[in-house]
Write a structure and sequence with these properties.
CATH class of the domain at 403-500: Alpha Beta
Distance between the termini: 52 Å
Number of strands: 25
Radius of gyration: 23 Å
Shape: globular
Largest sheet: 9 strands, mixed
Amino acid sequence: MNIPNYVARNARKYTRHEAVVAYEPSGVSRHSWGELNIHVNQFARYLQTEHGIEDGDRVALFLPNTYAFVVAHFAIQRLGAIVVPINVRLATPELAYILEDSGARLVVTCKMTDAAVKPLQADGVQALWLDDVNAMLDGLPAQEMLCDCDAEEPCTLLYTSGTTGKPKGVLFNHQALLHVGMMFAVEMQYQPESRLLSLMPFTHSAPLNLELIGGTIIGCTHVIAPTFTPDLLLDLTEKERTTHFFGAPVAYLLTAQHPSIQSRDLSSTTHWIYGGGPMAPEHAKLAQEAFASDQFYCVYGLTEAGPTGTLLLPDEHADKAGACGKRAAVFTEVRLVDDFNNPVGDNEPGEMQITGEGLMMAYWQNPEATAELFTEDGWIRTGDIAVRDEDGFYWIKDRMKDLIISGGVNVYPREVEDALATHPAVMEAAVIGIPHPEWGESVKACVVLKAELAAAEDELKAHLRPLLADYKIPRYIEVMAELPHNANGKVLKHVLRKQQSQ
């Protein structure tokens, strides 16, 4: 079996059942599984006849979460081609690099996101605008075009955020992503009646593989919109009676501040899922109270692993909020090892490593980086430092590259960030190391406040002194209006570090 054939199967099983409800600037559109399958057939045939797309070709999607994205995604894979979803917030040079590196034959875009595409047309980049799916495909042949790809053939090429250099293409086959989707469907109890609210971009691995593919395997309804706002989250949950939502912690924290959240009916949602980073215990409690629900799930993983990894269940939040879970998800194993790949004991720091059925095939045309990522026995190195407590729960201390070494002593930014989060005025914090002529690095905290403090730096330092050793307390604290995030809500610490050097 391969991914796009699940669309055809759903069209037979759930012909009139809603597949996609799309909220777009032009209005709301509703499409059944039968209709989606017809559009996928039509667009696949259009790509084949008009643009010569065939097995193994790469086709880029520079689209937000729209019905056009869903149709194009499955149509590309139905041809045996490889879909290349690209973050729509990228600038023209960044987009150009990915198009060249992937060797994409075509980039599919729309009026909402075409600004970065237009300058590249002069350089020969082939672009296709897909704004009104119904109008474009009207009258085209709709005969069934099933994909005969083997499950081990490549189907998706996702580019990492490139925080330590140029983005790398992460290549997956059908088999791996079907396991990833099935993992999430099992863990989050997807049913055909489930209604998945997707406001995080499908150009990132978690929304794409956990929600779009996982929900398609089961036959769920996808409720989508091109962007995230707290208003959209509250409005669509109420209007569409959605059952599942996945977002970064910041999405929950921003929405928790919405003035009308207490009067909203969010009772349809059985699974509030967050990832991209754990929530500090105080923030988890704040979100649970604001959303009037204790059904919060934390998921931890790595793009290169699908993403698969660990999960923290609702009944574990009371005592273990801030941890990323006690066990690996279905089809997955995790371990902690030292620098020599030996297992570490409880409360000893080690690198989190992942294996299972959802791992990538390779970094695209980059055998050196692929070899560095995989251990000799086939596990993926995450680059995350973690400890396992005496109860078996895993706590991510930090990224190896984010570790601060000040005066020869290790400082884990995550520990300082969690301590800052206990102050009632702090909404979000990011801790980085900045150069120091004697100590090597100094600790600096960048914070976003939800309530004004007259002397923020002094008050926050005073708050931290009973909580942390003196060498961990930030030497500098800067109050910012907002922190830089990627499109999936993860704080971009490399941007903060770069700002310090300017």
